[in-house]
Amino acid sequence: MKILFLSFSDYKGGANIAAFSIFKSLKNKNFFFLTVYSKNKKSKEIIGKLKKLYIILLRIFEKIIIKIFLKKKYHQSLNIFNTNISGKINKLNADILNLHWVNRSMISLNEICKIKSKVVISLHDMWFLNSTEHYTDKKKEDNDFISKYCLKKKIEIVKKKNVFFIAHNKWMLDKFKRKYPKHKSRIQLCKYYPIETNIFKPRNKIYLRKKYNLPTNKKIVFFSAQDFSDERKGYKTFIEIVNKLKNNKDIYFLSLGKKNNNFDNYSNLKQIDFLDHDKISDLYSLSDIFLCTSLIDNLPLTVLEALSSGNVVFSIKNGGVSEVLKDIGYTFKLGDKNKIIKTLLSITNKNLKKKSLQSRKFALKNLTSKKIKKQYIDIFNNFS
User: Fold this and answer.
1) Global pTM value
2) Secondary structure letter of residue 311 according to DSSP
3) Which sign does the torsion angle of CA 279, 283, 286, 289 carry?
């Protein structure tokens, strides 16, 4: 069986990293990972430099359309302009095309309908359930022409007999079934994502804290987001918590993401601009608590990496996080930052150690490549 995996990138963004980690876990010479924005040797760019420039220009044009006509709350993608990638895919004669994160004008909705092989779409966000938004908490779609067109095209995709879906948590599975009740049989559950548990693991905290010039005798709370300007990631809530605890002598905060010079004077916060993905494991390992303040999300890869690293995870209730943290972490209602602060202050070192062991145990049981591989192979066989 020949299977193509298609995603925008193999290293940039949580969904793309998750897609490539799934591909790596399967380890099959007949499986190929295709991107438009590639870096790793094991993947292949499906287009050349000129076509890549064309897609970049399409994305700019798409952003202009969104800014003028579609003023919505969260990040949006249209995917309405043809790129001819579907033609290239059809020539490869695969048995299955596994689509992951294919936005930024990588492939149009119309082109997905033209793919001849079986198409299995892995849902990393809510985009295939909405008209244009990757996430939304609205109950009704907008009635503008562009939104209606995009949603109509997605419904066409769902109705096609060669198209199937994978959800990575029960929350997304239920969202799909409520959105498309007549097509419940088209989606299957693969629980969670594979994490490199031999890299994201508990290590010597004192050594690592000295390496990064961090306090060795405090609770370290770690926050990470690719784009702090994305309101959905809840960076504002994180900073409010940091500010509230600026005079506390026992808690120190660490953030990974684009540095904000406005907070350089915070004595209880260290900001790290950028690290390669394989070095980020250091930051998890030296931390005690991982704080996820996303307002709405699918299942952040950062949460799973934190659990594998032995962090105790504090998170706003969103997406698949609640089912994962049910017995091993802490979840809070949206806007309840005072309760987060209270729990940060009250949690004892003894409880941190206990919860840390539970986090790692969960990861070794549920997040290994072997565990995810079996689920994906079973799903592919069921759809073939």
Assistant:
1) 0.95
2) P
3) negative
